[in-house]
Description:
alpha+beta
Amino acid sequence: MRFARILTATFALAFATAVAAPALPAAAQSSQQVMKSKKKPVKRPVRSAPRQIACTEFGCHPIPPNCRPQTGYRWDGMPSGYDVVVCR
């Protein structure tokens, strides 16, 4: 009789522990969320668009914003092989 009580108490304790165990990570997770919300946001540098490069008669150089490279032509209408920088 005594063995049956000990066995019953052991199973009851094991069942209570198994049922209560999933509640612990949820409580820990909510405290982690609270800790995350108190952190200051990190400012990251904003990346700008890559600058275009034009290869003119004087070499290849980055061109200013609001400008674009176009194909350059010789006096007879043939392409010169160089770019011409055109700005708005």
